[in-house]
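User: My advisor, Dr. K., asked me to get a structural model of this assembly before our group meeting. I'm new to this, so sorry if the format is off. These are the inputs:
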Amino acid sequence: MELDARNENVLIEERDDVLAARAPHDFDAFGELYRRHLDRIYRFVRSQVADSSTAEDLTAQIFFKAMASAGSFRGEAAYHSWLYRIAHNVIATWGRQRARTPLVVASLPDAEDMTPSPATQVIHGEQREMVRAQVAQLPPAQREVIALRYLEDFSIEEVADVTDRSRGAVRILLHRARLRLRRSLEGKELHR
Amino acid sequence: MMDPFDRSVVVGLMSISPRPGFSAELLSALRHASYLPVRLAAVDHTRAPWPLAGAVAGAAIGSAGAAVLAYRRLARGRRF
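Assistant: The format is fine. Below is the predicted structure of the whole assembly, which you can bring to the meeting.
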């Protein structure tokens, strides 16, 4: 028991790349990486799909793949970039397999999906929903770059690497997405 | 200083979080799925590395697939 707690403390202090090197043969190391990155990966996936059940299924697939291919992580990019690349591939495969249907506002995350922190309370709950609804209305490629840029603060290069697009293409997608969001959110008193 | 528009998008997206319990359920499913590949990887493969590597990779992918299916089945049961 004491050993477990000590091991846990050691893992908490380790860097992602050190844990990733241990992950193929040490589930606790993988578990620590999972704890660090689950919320951000779920948030990203949820911003790309219409309902939380699908988001859970896809998040599960992403982490199963990350675990099964833990040995293929070479440390050339940050671990979370590597995870996002898996997420991008899983979502792309899922997108190809299903019929193209636009997201509808009615199926956005419900109240129990949200745990507002003091920072998020700056904007009223309805306004947060409005922003998410508008993001959900963006075309998939724009939605993806917006989420990576705003959720992770990824650079253009990182977004390009994760999504397998050129930097120019990412810049254009981002510009179009921001323009579209600005227009759709204009006059909705978001900036109070 | 962040532009108010950018801030509203960040806050809107950051307000998404998994339902309580999801993290523990998935971690448990992952832990169970991790047993088989780890055991196979521990086998001595100095004499015939490629067939064994294939078997390990196949078992890892297979068990991950099976775990995803089991997880989905559980999740479906939970939803209804």
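One thing worth pointing out at the meeting: Confidence is low (pLDDT under 50) at residues 105-114, 118-122 of chain A.

User: Perfect, thanks a lot.
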